[in-house]
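Chapter review: from sequence to fold.
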Amino acid sequence: MHGWDLYDDAAAVVGTETATGLITDTRDLLQYRQLFDRLEALASKGDALTAALARLRSDYASLG
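The token string follows.
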């Protein structure tokens, strides 16, 4: 598992526990674009996102 940021399909900055890399190869960028598209399809949006954030806020507030 690692974090990454995609910049206009021109580059991806990938961070690992010990390093950061810049990826610009078109084939590699395609994999990150496809992953982003899959994650975006799963993301909560609109009313579902608002409700999820309200639940998190309530849960956090109840911690005291």
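Two observations follow directly from the output. The chain has a mean pLDDT of 94. DSSP finds two helices and three strands in the chain.
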